[in-house]
Design goal:
The chain is mainly alpha-helical. It has 20 helices and two strands. The mean pLDDT is 82.
Length: 473
């Protein structure tokens, strides 16, 4: 009997116009999303690789290491390959950085800033398809699952044949959920096949860790759709009319998908305000100007230069001046940048906590962004590693400055105006980002995944109770 109910649910839904239309739309969106995501990923990787050779050429063209240090490097952030599945907020975050002796390293110039049309229309990725298209399909699939059969009289007829209520509901759950999986998993497989045909290099960048992350992401999508599926059965088991059930479910969808995430940000801004970045930078510039002046006073005595020249320590002395100024400036910028970032992180954390606790859509989005490397966590880690590399680059520049031959002061100063190409070690100017371990990333998503599972179980349990007590008359 249970098998017959499951088969009936599958056949009744797969043959409908809403399933056919949804299936076709999902296939088109998944294919286009993966192909566009692969194209964007390939372009970003190409930009980053081009920078490796350009940085060396620019540094080598400088006539001395002081100039080279202030010209510095230009880094382009390499995205994680799973951004083809979920672009998250990656395009809204900074993607380029300057690394030199003068400024504090930061990631700026987001892709949406360069191409504002992307911010207007947004990206089409797999998360968008699941969050919007498939969740709406689940509502259309479930809003009349119980109330609609009551209106048609088929539910009363089934119960008259002494079929246990739990079997009817279990059959609807298994059959309906199978329809959802067909509408999602099959387009995913087709989309990956198209991507393999057009962008085989992108799939070639997938490691065992990447495939494992993708598997977990797909599991999160399935659980997320299960939340709306269970909620649909629950509401349909409470309402006597399918029209009422549809309106209630649509209101729940709007609340989860749009209202709660936006209100969470508004609440966090009110509860955790912080000083603007411009204001903090103004304070930093004043402190830096005063500090650099104090450092120069230490070396203003002409006799110190003469003594250093006689001892063959002129290069070391000049390098020390720039090194002290650079270190002081870095300390001040670090202090104010960390203050801003800590306050910003506190606000973001509060907004995320409110959103994920009240909205399964937010919980799903944050979990997927963490696994796909398209969220705030990877950006923060990327910036931390960039700043560590900036210190390594500074050390390299000052080492080269101190190694200059200053036995003859005249030749030493002439070397600053020469046109001889600098010998740049490529290994010392290459930044390699170390991706976070899979276990660490998963540990950060456990709370979000757990919330989705608990919410789905609560709705399923509530639907069982509601259906057992449902009046079919």
């Amino acid at each position: 009997m249970l098998r017959d109910i499951i088969r009936k649910e599958i056949m009744d839904n797969v043959g409908t116009l809403k399933f056919v239309v949804t299936f076709v739309v999902v296939i088109l969106l998944v294919i286009s999303g993966l192909i566009i995501g692969s194209k964007n990923y390939t372009e970003k990787v190409g930009d980053a690789q081009q920078r490796l050779g350009t940085n060396r050429e620019v540094l080598a063209a400088q006539n001395n290491w002081i100039n080279a240090g202030y010209v510095g490097l230009f880094e382009a952030k390499v995205p994680y390959v799973l951004t083809i599945v979920d672009s998250g907020i990656d395009d809204s975050l900074g993607r380029q950085a300057e690394i030199n002796l003068d400024i504090d390293t930061d990631l700026d110039e987001s892709r949406n800033l360069v191409s504002p049309i992307l911010a207007v229309f947004g990206n089409v990725d797999i998360t968008f398809v699941v969050k919007i298209v498939l969740s709406l399909f689940v509502i259309m699939l479930t809003y009349d699952a119980i109330s609609g059969e009551k209106e048609l009289g088929t539910l009363k007829l089934a119960l008259a044949n002494e079929v246990p209520r739990y079997k009817i509901l279990l059959g609807k759950i298994l059959g309906g959920y199978s329809v959802i999986l067909i509408a999602f998993i099959l387009p995913m497989i087709i989309g990956l096949a198209f991507m393999m045909a057009f962008y085989p290099d992108v799939l070639g960048a997938f490691t065992a860790d990447t495939w494992l992350r993708l598997l977990v992401i797909v599991g999160i999508y399935v659980v997320y759709l299960g939340v709306f599926f269970a909620a649909g059965l629950f509401v349909s088991s409470l309402c006597q009319r399918s029209a009422t059930s549809f309106i209630v479910l649509l209101m729940i969808w709007v609340l989860f998908v749009t209202i709660i995430p936006k209100l969470s940000l508004v609440a966090a801004e009110r509860l955790r305000p912080y000083e603007s970045y411009t204001s903090l930078q103004t304070k930093a510039m004043k402190e830096i100007a005063q500090g650099r002046s104090e450092i120069l006073k230490e070396f203003s005595d002409q006799s110190r230069f003469a003594q250093a020249a006689q001892k063959g320590e002129l290069a070391e002395m000049i390098a020390s001046i720039f090194e002290k100024q650079s270190e002081f400036q870095q300390e001040v910028l670090d202090k104010y940048d960390r203050q801003y970032e800590q306050q910003q992180a506190a606000q973001i954390t509060l907004a995320e906590s409110i959103a994920r606790s009240l909205s399964p859509t937010s919980a799903m989005s944050f979990a997927v962004q963490n696994l796909a490397g398209s969220g705030w966590a990877r950006q923060t880690e990327y910036l931390d590693q960039l700043r560590s590399f900036q210190q390594e680059f500074r050390n390299y520049v000052f080492e080269e400055m101190k190694n200059l031959d200053d036995s003859d002061p005249q030749k030493f100063f002439e070397s600053f105006m020469g046109d001889k190409e600098l010998e740049v070690q490529q290994s010392r100017i290459n930044f390699q980002f170390r991706e976070e371990d899979f276990a660490v990333t998963v540990s950060r998503t456990i709370w979000d995944i757990g919330l989705l599972i608990v919410l789905a179980m609560v709705f399923f349990a509530a639907s069982f109770v509601a259906f057992i007590r449902y009046d079919v008359r």
